[in-house]
Recover the amino acids of this structure.
């Protein structure tokens, strides 16, 4: 069956015999309007009968600072974590009558100011800013701790040269290695010389994310290396594809949806009781 058409402001106006402006005045409880109680009741009855729901974004834009939150998401930060974070953020904001707008792409001070000046949101935030204790960067230690626990002492970290959080991830991972008494991590930007790394004593690679880890596994196979026999490989972000590989990918799962909900309540100045995210969890599979 075709999906039922969503009722519009025009439909409500026609059903109640008034103008669209009058419907808008009633729904927004606009002051200084001489609308009779009978007309108001008729409009509200039409809204009920038609199941009319005001367009959230339009309402937020009209009300400006009280309803709209803007999230800036730069290229390179998309992934399972960001999708889950945005889902939790959006759901929690929606539950409290706020609307989330996500702006994808490179963010500069100029572009950020332009958007804020146009829509005048209640708040604006950048996804994955360094220093967020609940973000993916802070959990690099999960990878290093797990690999060390499996007996690996010479570990490389595969992070693209242009990765948005490259230096942050390397710093967190390096600190984790030092705390465990391991030799300094080897930063890895290319995957063309994995056999040489193995010959030099590297036994495990921690990927910046699952995508990089999966590329590492493919490169290892092309170079005649077995995973995990010759080289253990571990991802980060727990994407669905990792479980489908052979060998399946060991990775780290973060309760990103709870992080999103927590962020929403913090932005709105609400209590965060009962929203403590579950601890990061290593998903143990076959690759490491």
């Amino acid at each position: 069956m075709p999906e039922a058409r969503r009722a519009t402001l025009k439909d409500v106006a026609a059903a109640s015999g008034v103008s669209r402006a009058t419907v808008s005045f009633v729904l927004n409880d606009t002051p200084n309007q001489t609308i009779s109680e009978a007309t108001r009741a008729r409009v509200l009855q039409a809204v009920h009968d038609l199941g009319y729901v005001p367009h959230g974004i339009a309402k937020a834009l009209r009300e400006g600072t009280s309803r709209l939150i803007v999230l800036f998401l730069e290229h390179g930060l998309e992934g399972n974590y960001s999708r889950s974070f945005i889902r939790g953020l959006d759901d929690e904001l929606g539950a409290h009558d706020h609307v989330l707008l996500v702006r994808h792409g490179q963010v500069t001070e100029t572009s950020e100011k332009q958007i804020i000046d146009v829509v005048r949101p209640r708040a604006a935030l950048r996804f994955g800013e360094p220093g967020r204790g609940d973000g993916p960067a802070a959990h690099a230690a999960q990878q290093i701790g797990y690999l060390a626990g499996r007996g690996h002492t010479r570990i490389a970290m595969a992070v693209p040269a242009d990765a948005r959080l490259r230096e942050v991830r390397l710093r967190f991972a390096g600190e984790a290695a030092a705390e465990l008494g391991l030799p300094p991590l080897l930063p890895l930007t290319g995957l063309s010389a994995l056999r040489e790394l193995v010959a030099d004593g590297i036994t495990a690679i921690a990927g910046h994310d699952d995508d990089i880890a999966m590329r590492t596994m493919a490169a290892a196979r092309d170079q005649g290396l077995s995973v995990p026999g010759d080289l253990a490989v571990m991802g980060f972000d727990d994407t669905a594809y990792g479980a489908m590989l052979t060998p399946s990918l060991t990775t780290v799962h973060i309760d990103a949806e709870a992080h999103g909900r927590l962020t929403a309540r913090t932005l709105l100045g609400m209590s965060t009781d009962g929203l403590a995210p579950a601890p990061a969890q290593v998903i143990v599979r076959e690759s490491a």
